[in-house]
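Recall that a protein's primary structure is simply its ordered list of amino acids. Everything else, from secondary elements to tertiary packing, is in principle encoded there. The following example makes that idea concrete.
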Amino acid sequence: MSIELKYIERPFEVKAVDEKGIFTGYGSVFGNVDSYKEIVAPGAFAESLYGWKDAGRLPPVLWQHRSGEPIGPFLEMREDSHGLDTKGHLLIDDVVRAKEARALMLAKAVNGLSIGFVTRKDSYDKVTGIRTLLQVDLWEISIVTFPANPSAQITGVKSAIDTLQTLADAERFLRDAGNLTRSQATAFMARVKSLPPGQGDPDPAVDELVALKQALQGLQLTIG
């Protein structure tokens, strides 16, 4: 059975961050319809939070949903009447990315939280087309960037594709911009390498890179 990890992409705002890297904010709010026409119901996180408590820890603070870039632990996490209220600690003395994240948050350049989760129970309204998430497994909460114009960010990603010079560049792009794991990026590139060669270039890597750029242009990448 495959597990689909999903993200809530609404800009749940960080309420405060201090010089020590302690921040507070809502990872999710109840009752709001997101871009996928989904609503998180009160109590949706309760069972998952009990599970984390039994394990003696809380979900990690990630940077931009990148599993390889944890930037600190969450210290507190609870449901209240508004949503999933959190308190986290950016490890600014030990993790470079955490220090960068705090600086961006203090400057209001980055000011969002986004959750990664797996749906356990939901309900669907055939009239409104809205799905209500009744129970979810919470995997992580990330510090994320929410652009004022999402279309502009997608355009920026497509421009970045055009600048790729090597297959190694492409793999890094897949991991960073596309939020793929190393194994997923490697598997995707293996499929590209299996495509028919281009027209007469003596270097096979050039054909592979052209094919990869064309394939990437057709992807809908989720940013942030």
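The CA atoms of residues 3 and 223 lie 20 Å apart. The radius of gyration is 20 Å.
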